[in-house]
Amino acid sequence: MSISPGLLTFLSDLKANNSREWFAANKGVYDLEKGKFDELIDSLIVAYSEFENMDGVERKHCSYRIYRDVRFSKNKDPYKTWFSASFSEGGRRSGFMDYYLHIEPGGKSFLGGGMYNPTPEQMAKYRQEVDYNGAALRKIVESSIFVKTFGAAEGEMLQKVPKGFDPSPEDAPYLRRKQLFYWKHYTDKEIVHPNFSEQLMADSKVMKPFLIFLNTTFFDKETF
Predict the structure, then answer these.
(1) How many CB atoms lie within 10 A of CB 107?
(2) Pair 54, 87: CB distance under 8 Å
(3) pLDDT of the chain along its 224 residues, tens only?
């Protein structure tokens, strides 16, 4: 399956007319495109279940609302100008690092995964694991297929290695990480292509060892 071209048109129009009045007038188009996207989510849950534990995971556990929470934001636009979903064992609120799918016109669509907003406890566990076994992480994210697919790491970094660590030069950049995530962007042409789901699954399988590293670091290793 692929993304509906109509969804990209709707999102482009929404970006230019981000108001409750315009959305209400175009609610029928939204419902139509949301229905198509929901069907894609259903098919992706099945596809991910071939190599992830998706038992009990339903569409509602993966999808995100289009309505923005503007209470604490300077940006008062009422709607997101993208569709998104994430896939993992237990669903998006499970706490597990997941496969995040973001659909936005203009080549801004991507598959991402990693530590975006780690808790202090997760950050401590991550640095301890890198200090103990950084070679395992480097073997994954510096492999040729991973670099070819996702490129360089994204996210904020500390200026220096945290106190208490004396890492090798190879591990130092990973210990300085405050965030560590990777993404692969897709063109609009790629996401509306009939084989987009197959490409997404191939890229997700490349991402999988990285997510396993994080999840086994953050959670009981017997879980995986």
Answers:
(1) 13
(2) yes
(3) 889 999 999 999 999 999 999 999 999 999 999 999 999 999 999 999 999 999 999 999 999 999 998 787 788 899 999 999 999 999 988 889 999 999 999 999 999 999 999 999 999 999 999 999 999 999 999 999 999 999 999 999 999 999 988 888 999 999 999 999 999 999 999 999 999 999 999 999 999 999 999 999 998 655 44
3-class state of residue 69 by DSSP:
coil
Beta bridge partners of 214: none
Helical axes 27-48 vs 196-218, angle rounded to 10°? 60
* Per-residue tokens: 57: 């995971």
Q: pTM for the full model?
A: 0.93
Give Cα 178 to chain centroid, integer Å.
Answer: 17
First to last CA, the chain: 29
Which pair of structure tokens corresponds to residue 144? 């040729």
Listing DSSP states for 137-181 in one string gives HHHHHTSHHHHHHH-S-BS-B-SSPPTT----TTTHHHHTBS-EE
Question: Burial, 68: exposed, middle or buried (Cβ in 10 Å; 0-12, 13-18, 19+)?
Answer: middle
